[in-house]
Amino acid sequence: MTTHTDDAATAGLTLLGNGPRTQPQDALEAFPNPHPDRAYHIRIESPEFTALCPITGQPDFANIVLEYVPGPRCIELKAFKLYLWHFRDQGTFHEDVVNRILSDLVTAIEPCWARVTGVFNVRGGLYTSIVADHGAAALATPYPDLRPSRW
User: Apex CA 130: angle with CA 127 and CA 135, to 5°?
Assistant: First the structure.
């Protein structure tokens, strides 16, 4: 099997690779978009997101979905996972955390378009979903939910 590593593309990535790089991180890492001349969609889903209720301190669980059309950079997956992990001990409202994730992503990768959706598990008999968008609405994903049915 042949592997291809572009040193320019991986320069600056510190969380990917060998070693004990599994601590929560509050920073995101990115790599150059390998196809900057094309508007294509990337969808990343994290079904195990946790944060704390800022009032009760009880855990809130959510499925976080990131969809974006990359600009100059793409988000590195392990860095994104560790970034999401850093919220697990933070007290934050659902509305705030989804918008913070989007703001941090926009700063890190400058996407042409991005959407972060947080689908939070039931709390007090209520389900909460938060959707935050950035960028050109014409690029919004035309695709239905791509997940296989889990029910």
Answer: 165
Q: Tens digits of per-residue pLDDT, 87-118? A: 999 999 999 999 999 999 999 999 999 999 99
Sequence letter at residue 119: V
**What is the CB neighbour count within 10 angstroms for residue 120?**
20
Report the run of H or E that residue 14 belongs to, with start and end. none
- The per-residue pLDDT for 151 is 39
Spell out the residues 6+ positions from residue 63 whose beta carbon is closer than 8 angstroms to its own: 45, 46, 47, 49, 118, 119
Look up residue 89 and give its DSSP letter: G
Q: Domain extents for the chain?
A: 27-134
Assigned architecture for domain 27-134: 2-Layer Sandwich (3.30)
Please check whether residue 24 is in contact with residue 82, taking contact to mean a CB–CB distance below 8 angstroms. yes
CA-derived radius of gyration, the chain? 16
Closest CA to 78 of 38, 129, 130, 25: 25
Q: Which residues are catalytic?
A: 53, 60
Structure-token match 């969808």, residue found? 43
Query: What stretches of the chain show up as alpha helix (H) in DSSP?
Result: 7-10, 77-85, 94-109
